[in-house]
Design brief:
Largest sheet: 8 strands, mixed
Structural class: alpha/beta
Oligomer: single chain
Radius of gyration: 23 Å
Strand order of the largest sheet: 11-10-9-12-13-16-15-14
CATH topology of the largest domain: Rossmann fold
Distance between the termini: 71 Å
Strand content: 15-25%
Shape: globular
Number of domains: 2
CATH class of the largest domain: Alpha Beta
Length: 439
C-alpha cells in the first residue's frame, strides 16, 4: 500500500499532512449543521459534555477512533474534545462515512482520515490514526485494535492504556483473541451494555435498515416476503420492523433457541435454501460469511432484493453472484441489477455492505445517544484509573460493562424525555433480599 492515497496526490481530496485527509473540506459547514441537529437529540451526551468540559479529565490523552463517521459520531468526538482529548479518527467501513461530517470534524481540529468509498485506502487511514501513538482506542468492528495488535505489538503491550469495542462481531473476535493469549490491553465490551445492544442493535438497526432499503429501492414492503438471516439482536430488530410495515417475515437461523424466539414473535422459520425460493427481500444480520451463496441466487425469484446489515460484506458471496450472472449494472444509487443466466434479475444493495449506513444515515441520534455515552464513560474509567493510580491499567481482558453504568445512562435518558419511574421502599428492598420469607 502506498504512503498516500493516489486520489489525494491527484488533488481530488482535501488534505493537510499530519492533520487530515477528507473528501472536501468545504463541506464543513454542512457537516456542522448535521452535528448540531444530532446534539439536539442526544441529551445524555450533552449531559456528559456539561459535566466534564470544565474538569477536562482527558487532557493530555490521545484517543484514536475507528467508527462510522456519522453526525452522531461527530457529537461523540465533540464531547471527547470538550473533555480535553486529542482525537484521531478513521471510518470503520468503506461506505459509511458522511463526507460533510468528516470535513466538519477536520475543521474542528480532529485528525480525520475518512471519506465515502475509501476501500483501497481503508487501512492507510487507520495507520494514520496510529502514527501519533494514541493512549486509547475506540473501535467498531475491531479493525483498529487488530491493526495495533498485529503491526505494533510492543506498543500495544506498553503504550496503550485500553480500548472499547462497539459491535457484536468485534467483541466476539476480542474474546477469541483473549482465549488465545493474544490480547495485550484491556478492552471494554461496549456492545454488551444493555443500553447499547437492547436499544442500538434492536431498535436502531431495525429502523435504519428499513430506511436504507427504502432509500435504495423505494420498494413497497407490505405483502412482500421479507427474509432475515439471523435472529440475534440486530436480526430480531429488522424482522420486527419489517413485520410492522406489513411484510410476511421469514427468519433463517442456526440456533434452536433463536428460532423459537422468532416463531413466538410471529415470524416463520425455515432454511435459507427454502427461503431463497420464496423471498422478495433478503437481509443478512449474522456476522458470519456465506449466508447467501451461489445456490441461493440461482433459486431466487425474478426481482429479488438482497442486502446486508451485518458489519462485514462477506455475508453475501458477491463472487458467487458474479459467477452466475451474465451482466450487471447500477440502476439507481446503491442498487445494482444482476441478470442471472436464467434470465431472472436480482438487485444487490450497497455492494453488500451495511445497508443502513451506506444507503441511509445509520441509527437515529436518539438511540446512539446511549451507545456513545457508554463509549465515553468506559474511556473515562480507564483514564481515571491511569491518572489516579500512577499509570495503572485494567488487566488485559475483555471487560464487561457495569450494570450501574447502564442504570445511570437510562436514568438520564428517562429524565430528558420527561418520564418518571417508581423506586423501591426500604421495606420492599428488605423483602427482596430476605431468604427466609415463605408463601
Amino acid at each position: 500500500m502506498s504512503n498516500t492515497p493516489d486520489k489525494k496526490e491527484q488533488g481530488q481530496f482535501s488534505h493537510e499532512v499530519g492533520k487530515y485527509c477528507v473528501r472536501d473540506i468545504s463541506l464543513a459547514e454542512e457537516g456542522k449543521l448535521l452535528m448540531d441537529w444530532a446534539e439536539s437529540r442526544m441529551p445524555v451526551m450533552m449531559k456528559l459534555k456539561e459535566m466534564y468540559s470544565k474538569t477536562k479529565p482527558f487532557a493530555g490523552y490521545k484517543i484514536a477512533g475507528c467508527l462510522h463517521v456519522t453526525k452522531e459520531t461527530g457529537v461523540l468526538i465533540r464531547v471527547l474534545q470538550a473533555a480535553g482529548a486529542e482525537v484521531m479518527w478513521s471510518g470503520c467501513n468503506p461506505l459509511s462515512t458522511n463526507d460533510a461530517v468528516a470535513a466538519a470534524c477536520a475543521a474542528e481540529g480532529v485528525q480525520m482520515y475518512a471519506w465515502y468509498g475509501n476501500g483501497d485506502d481503508f487501512y492507510w487511514c487507520i495507520d494514520r490514526t496510529i502514527d501519533p501513538r494514541p493512549h486509547l482506542t475506540l473501535d467498531d468492528g475491531c479493525d483498529l485494535i487488530n491493526t495495533v495488535h498485529e503491526h505494533h505489538k510492543e506498543y500495544a503491550k506498553t503504550g496503550v492504556i485500553g480500548g472499547t469495542e462497539e459491535t457484536t462481531t468485534g467483541v466476539h473476535r476480542l474474546r477469541s483473541r483473549e482465549e488465545a493469549g493474544e490480547l495485550y490491553y484491556p478492552v471494554f465490551a461496549v456492545n454488551d451494555a444493555e443500553t447499547k445492544w437492547d436499544f442500538d442493535n434492536v431498535y436502531g438497526t431495525g429502523q435504519s435498515t428499513l430506511d436504507g432499503i427504502i432509500r435504495a429501492t423505494s420498494v413497497f414492503l407490505a405483502g412482500k416476503n421479507f427474509v432475515v438471516g439471523g435472529h440475534g439482536h440486530c436480526g430480531s430488530g429488522v424482522a420486527m420492523r419489517a413485520k410492522g410495515m406489513g411484510s410476511n417475515t421469514i427468519v433463517t437461523e442456526v440456533s434452536a433457541v433463536a428460532s423459537m424466539k422468532a416463531i413466538l414473535n410471529g415470524h416463520e422459520v425455515m432454511t435459507m435454501d427454502e427461503a431463497a425460493k420464496v423471498g422478495d427481500i433478503f437481509c443478512t444480520a449474522t456476522g458470519v460469511k456465506d449466508i447467501i451463496v451461489k445456490r441461493h441466487f440461482e433459486s431466487m425469484r425474478d426481482g429479488a432484493i438482497i442486502c446486508n446489515t451485518g458489519h462485514y460484506d462477506s455475508e453475501i458471496n458477491i463472487k458467487d453472484l458474479l459467477e452466475v450472472s451474465t451482466s450487471h449494472r447500477t440502476i439507481r444509487p446503491n442498487c445494482e441489477e444482476y441478470t442471472l443466466k436464467s434470465g431472472n434479475r436480482v438487485y444487490l444493495l450497497a455492494e453488500g455492505r451495511l445497508i443502513n449506513l451506506a444507503a441511509a444515515e445509520g441509527h437515529p441520534s436518539e438511540v446512539m445517544d446511549m451507545s456513545f455515552a457508554n463509549q465515553f464513560m468506559s474511556h473515562l474509567r480507564m483514564v481515571e484509573k491511569h491518572s489516579k493510580e500512577n499509570g495503572a491499567k485494567f488487566p488485559a481482558h475483555v471487560i464487561d460493562m457495569p450494570a450501574e453504568q447502564d442504570e445511570w445512562i437510562a436514568g438520564v435518558k428517562l429524565e430528558a424525555i420527561g418520564m418518571k419511574m417508581d423506586t423501591l421502599t426500604p421495606e420492599q428492598e428488605s423483602y427482596m433480599n430476605a431468604y427466609n420469607e415463605g408463601t
